[in-house]
Backbone:
DNA sequence: TCGCTTACCTACTCTGGAGTAAGGCTACGT
DNA sequence: ACGTAGCCTTACTCCAGAGTAGGTAAGCGA
């Protein structure tokens, strides 16, 4: 039962790591950092832990990514960019407003579902720090809000009416984005739900409203390419 | 310009604090702790800072409230209880569903507006910690969701219809509570808005939905005791 | 083969902050 | 008055964890 030197099993030789190009190491370090930060929070996480998870020694992190603060900021930036790209990629301008919204929501929740750690570090951890970290997140949120508001306002002007919606477009978009964020947060603690159920839930809430839902009027996605 | 011993100004004599009963001190310490935790987060906050803000020395905190973890848990518990009491106090069962919802929202946002620090420590900080802190928050959220769900389901059965709303009551309630939480969070970063505007915004979003709002159908609170 | 660069390591230093020991001051009971 | 209970403090101990000094080895071009 004692295999001190099994030559086939190679997980974590505590000795020297294989030489890899900087680019690859940086990605590995960022991945590890996202994992650790999302689990323990900024202050709770230790650089030793990050280096451990990344399978590399601490000085490498300082050499490549700088201080702990720099590392955290880099995490936020990378994950925020990825998320926004996913959302933008899911929306197509030629579709009707509700379908655009639906696809945006699906893309958003899809990303969160497949990158729970990313979302955790983005939404929970970065907000918990007062520092300059939040700015990155805020910038992303602003862009998301602008995106949603554009969809809404365009829908309003298309129909010729809807002054209330158009004028309050930004505000409503903020509310929706907020609702989406916290529903995603809620999802973190209820992983049994599927993406579509979550997305449909929010879609119904924000498009139909309780008033309609009480009368059994629900929103359903249109049948596409049957 | 040098008043080493002004007998009238008495802010923070660094010397000995006045003797006060334990009960009072505990409240002061909790108040200080909420302030500090909300500002720096759990790990970022130091007991020295708390003792400083509380105007008392560190060993007193350990004597009265126990460890840092105990102190934090005590903060969460107190603030969660206060918040839920505020909401329950604002709802009256004999009113129609939408009005109950409206009053609940108003009470909720009213509390958050007047106790921003409480909300910060509750929602942001406690979620950022993975530990047993979250449980207290979760318990409160469960109660809030149950409350909202009860309002919705009752509304559904009153009207005889609304199976969709009734059956999905809990889920929709969760979405609404989530939306409320994050709108409150958003509010922290946009303090210029008033309580009523924020509450009305969410009310419109969840009761009418975008679909209605696009057609200028908005929800307005009924005129009470004109 | 030598030398240069770059990846990588062990093994520290040093500070911030949790938690405590040991003892003063004050008020009230007797 | 004088003890004693309990409020309050200074002044530590001690450890986790950020950041670094200094050195090893692997590839690569001459």
Residues:
């Amino acid at each position: 039962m004692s295999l001190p030197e099994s030559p086939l099993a190679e997980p974590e030789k505590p000795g020297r790591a294989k030489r890899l190009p900087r680019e690859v190491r940086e990605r590995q370090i960022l991945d590890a950092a996202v994992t650790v930060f999302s689990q323990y929070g900024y202050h709770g996480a230790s650089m030793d832990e990050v280096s451990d998870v990344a399978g590399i020694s601490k000085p490498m992190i300082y050499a490549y990514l700088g201080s702990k603060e720099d590392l955290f900021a880099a995490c936020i930036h990378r994950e925020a960019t990825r998320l926004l790209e996913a959302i933008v990629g899911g929306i197509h301008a030629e579709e009707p407003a509700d379908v655009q919204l639906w696809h945006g929501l699906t893309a958003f929740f899809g990303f969160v579902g497949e990158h729970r750690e990313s979302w955790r570090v983005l939404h929970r951890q970065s907000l918990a720090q007062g520092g300059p970290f939040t700015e990155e997140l805020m910038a992303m949120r602003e862009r998301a809000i602008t995106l949603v508001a554009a969809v809404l306002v365009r829908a309003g002007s298309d129909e010729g009416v809807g002054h209330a919606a158009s004028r309050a477009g930004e505000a409503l978009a903020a509310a929706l984005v907020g609702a989406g964020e916290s529903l995603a947060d809620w999802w973190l603690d209820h992983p049994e739900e599927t993406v579509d159920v979550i997305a449909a839930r929010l879609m119904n809430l924000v498009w139909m409203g309780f008033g309609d839902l009480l009368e059994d009027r629900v929103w359903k996605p249109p049948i596409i390419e049957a």
About this structure: Residues 15-17, 19-22, 25, 56-60, 63 of chain B lie near DNA strand D (CB under 10 Å from a C1'). DSSP finds ten helices and no strands in chain B. Confidence is low (pLDDT under 50) at residues 1-13 of chain B.
